[in-house]
Amino acid sequence: MQLQEAEDQLLRVAEAVRAACLTAAQESYEEASMRGLCHEGAWEYAMGVVRTLDVRNILTQLRQT
């Protein structure tokens, strides 16, 4: 694999992980807020969800596209 191809692939992985983190944070924050958590509680819940993201699953999904 050439250097540019390797860099492009790494960038694609990084963008997929970033998108998954943002989606997880937004969705879990909204869910926690609807359940009545205060801002700080909803934020902590969202960060907990991001921390537990299955990165292997993200990579598997990326390979399938």
Structure, explained:
The model has no long low-confidence stretch (mean pLDDT 95). Helix content is 83%, strand content 0%. The relative contact order is 0.14. With 65 residues, the protein is mainly α. Helix 1 packs antiparallel against helix 2. It has a domain of 39 residues.
Low-confidence stretches are: none
H/E order of the elements?
Answer: HHH
Number of helices: 3
What percent of residues are in strands? under 5%
Approximate shape: elongated
Q: Largest sheet at a glance?
A: none
| Alpha-carbon distance between the two ends | 19 Å
The overall strand count is: 0
Give the mean pLDDT: 95
List keywords for this structure.
65 residues; mainly alpha
SSE blueprint:
Elements: H1 3-34, H2 39-51, H3 55-63
Question: How would you sum up this structure in a few lines?
Answer:
The protein is an all-alpha fold and 65 residues long. The chain is built from 3 helices and no strands. The protein has a domain at 27-65.
